[in-house]
Amino acid sequence: MAHGGPRAKRVAGGRRAAYDARMIEGPVLGIETSCDETAVAVLAPDGRVLAERVLSQSGHAEHGGVVPEIAARAHLAHLPRMVDAVLAAAGIGLAELGAVAATVGPGLIGGLLVGANYGKGLALALGRRFVAVNHLEAHALTPRLPGLVPGGAPFPYLLLLLSGGHTQAVAVEGLGRYRRLGTTLDDAAGEAFDKAAKLIGLGWPGGPALERLAARGDAARFALPRPMLGRAGCDFSFSGLKTAVAHEAAKLGAGALAEQDAADLAAGFQAAVAAVLADRARHAAALLRSAHPGLSLMVVSGGVAANQALRAALLAAAEAEGMALAAPPPRLCGDNAVMVAWAAIERLRAGTALGPEVLPRPRWPLDDALLRVA
Ligand code: KG4
Ligand code: ZN
Questions:
Q1: Distance between CA 40 and CA 102 in Å, rounded?
Q2: What residues sit around ligand 2, an ion, with C-beta below 5 angstroms?
Q3: What separation in Å is there between the alpha carbon of 35 and the centre of ligand 2?
Q4: Helices 109-126 and 68-90 meet at what angle, rounded to 10?
Q5: Which parts of the chain fold into alpha helices (H)?
Q6: For the segment 168-205, what is each residue's pLDDT rounded down to a tens digit?
Q7: Nearest bound ligand to CA 134?
């Protein structure tokens, strides 16, 4: 990547001129370490993915969930060589990078500290800009990656963010202009999948395994509740559904479930989640349409959005509302670093990128003042 005038001028002047935030001088490195995925990506300034890697840490399954200390240590162990591998795959050297971006929240603080400090150190050593990225904003902006959605996902759109830690219906009205329309009153959607999977006898994380098992099950066998269905607004609730799964599993007797019983219960659970999500999505669309009559795009993201049955239900809901549904490919729905670099590019282009002064933080809602852009 050739460096043009601005850097040459800086060098010639002997001092660093004020950084023009709108200028992205080279590929952007993205780092994601907020949970149990160590991810690195490098994107060209126009958003093309030059290379990326996601390492799903393996040390948590035996504990039945993410252990923060194990996660942080694993990020520290893997991140440096992943950065090297991604740059090598992209065919670029460190010195060619235009900026370094890392997730600084929300998430597990140990992992955030590892990723953010690594990113800051690298940016400092290279004399490049460090961009602090909000993980939820990165999920929210993913559909705007070039080539992902026909037409490019212009604002506004309705975002359904369904992950292990978050379940939200968000009005994405512009960069830094997010309104939470609804959220979960108890468990997150992915958490519900993980808990139901455990009750059915599957390992952790349970979502993908539950989906595979459900494909062989009869969704109509167990009469499971559909929490919040038809209720005003678009909040979610999943804990009652999880309790119902626990009751049905207990009724089937002690010990491991028979294969078909497990499959039927999995299918019943997944169908109930699908029905609830479709209903909540339609309510959210109606709410947002009152502010934006031309609303035409619904986007589903987060790890749970990899589920094909849920995608199908949401597609039907979107179509019933006269909207298109965009679902990023599964590798961009789960945690990844492409979205981190892309969120940084969006903010650099707009001149609203956050810098190293934004310290890692476990909580950082999308409607926080730090993110707001008038
Ligand atoms: O977004 P994500 O990768 O990580 C965060 O939580 O931020 O989401 C992980 C969650 C886990 O709860 C996992 O069980 C769930 O997404 N998940 C799924 C599927 N794939 C992943 N849930 C249902 N069906 C799937 N195919
Ligand atoms: Zn996530």
A1: 9
A2: 163, 335
A3: 8
A4: 30
A5: 5-13, 68-90, 109-126, 135-141, 189-200, 206-214, 239-251, 259-291, 308-320, 330-333, 338-350
A6: 999 999 999 999 999 999 999 999 999 999 999 998 88
A7: 2
Q: Whose CA is closest to atom 22 on ligand 1?
A: 207
pLDDT of the residue at 72: 86
Task: State whether 178 and 312 are in the same domain.
Answer: yes
232 found inside a domain: yes
Burial class (CB in 10 A: 0-12, 13-18, 19+), 24: buried
Residue 258 has a CB neighbour count (10 Å cut-off) of 11
Atom of ligand 1 nearest to the CA of 190: 12
- The residue range of the domain holding 86 is 12-148+333-371
pLDDT of residue 240: 96
Kindly report whether the global pTM for this prediction surpasses the value 0.85: yes
The span from the CA of 25 to the CA of 21, in Å, is 10
Which ligand 1 atom is at minimum distance from the Cα of 189? 12
Ligand 1 pocket list (CB less than 6 A): 35, 163-165, 190, 193-194, 205-208, 211, 302-304, 306-307, 334-335
Find the 220 Cα to ligand 2 centroid distance in Å: 31
User: Can you give the CATH number for the domain in which 191 is found?
Assistant: 3.30.420.40
pLDDT computed for residue 19 by the predictor: 42
pLDDT of residue 22: 55
Q: Could you say which ligand is closest to the alpha carbon of residue 204?
A: 1
Among 161, 160, 157, CA closest to 177: 157
Residues 74 and 216 placed together within one structural domain of the fold: no
Where the chain has pLDDT below 70, the residues are 1-22
Q: 68 CA distance to ligand 2 centroid (A)? A: 15
- Residue 253 pLDDT: 86
| Residues 270 and 317 placed together within one structural domain of the fold | yes
State whether 323 and 342 are in the same domain.
Answer: no
Q: Which ligand is nearest to the CA of 136?
A: 2
pLDDT in tens, 216-275: 999 999 999 999 999 999 999 999 999 999 999 999 988 899 999 999 999 999 999 999
| 112 and 66 within one domain | yes
CA of 164 to the centre of ligand 1 (A): 5
Number of domains in the chain: 2
